[in-house]
Amino acid sequence: MTTHPLWRPFNPGANAARQGERVASRQTTPGAVRAHDESWRERFEEINRVLTESIGDLALSIRHVGSTAVPGLAAKPVIDVDLTVRDVELEHSYMPQLEAAGFRLIFRDVMSGDPHRQLTFAIPNTNLHVWSPGAIEPQRHLVFTDWLRTNSRDRERYNAAKAAASTADGTARYNDLKAAVVYDIYERAFIADPSHDHDPHPRDLA
């Protein structure tokens, strides 16, 4: 079976499981899901300026990803940003500057086999994900965001999943409640990718 290099197995409890790696709380709560706001692009540009002014050339790339980067997609009003530095584990080279600028480290963990640091910013409310070059997750984020920008049907599916997850009862976390739809969207994006072959890897529905 041929598998896309960015494919990862379906893991519906991943977000709940990683909470043990949390080192602090975020400054501003995420808030409720709302319709897409065109000003989110401007909020990203604000964070982009803060990052550029605080770490300059240490930032190899800064990308707006996630739902707030996709016109027509509902989202919690939190700007998701992927930042690539030369080595995410050399925190002394970039963390003091980020913290001095107002970012707060909340996770020190590993995602898709790669070291990851997540920081937050209060206003505009931001999730900053820091990676080393070649990390898998930021590449997945780019595929997902680009696919949703051009695929209206999957935007509708994802909007419906967000609405259901945001109103569900119980102890499951919001991200885990929409994990199945996210996985299925990745499957369609991977199958359609002209750069790599990918045979279907459907979720086990048993």
Automatic annotation (TrEMBL):
Biological source species: Microbacterium murale
Gene3D superfamilies, sorted: Beta Polymerase, domain 2 (3.30.460.10)
Name by which UniProt lists this protein: GrpB-like predicted nucleotidyltransferase (UPF0157 family)
Region described as Disordered: spans on this chain: 1-35
Any Pfam family: GrpB
UniProt feature coiled coil, ranges: none
Domain of life: Bacteria
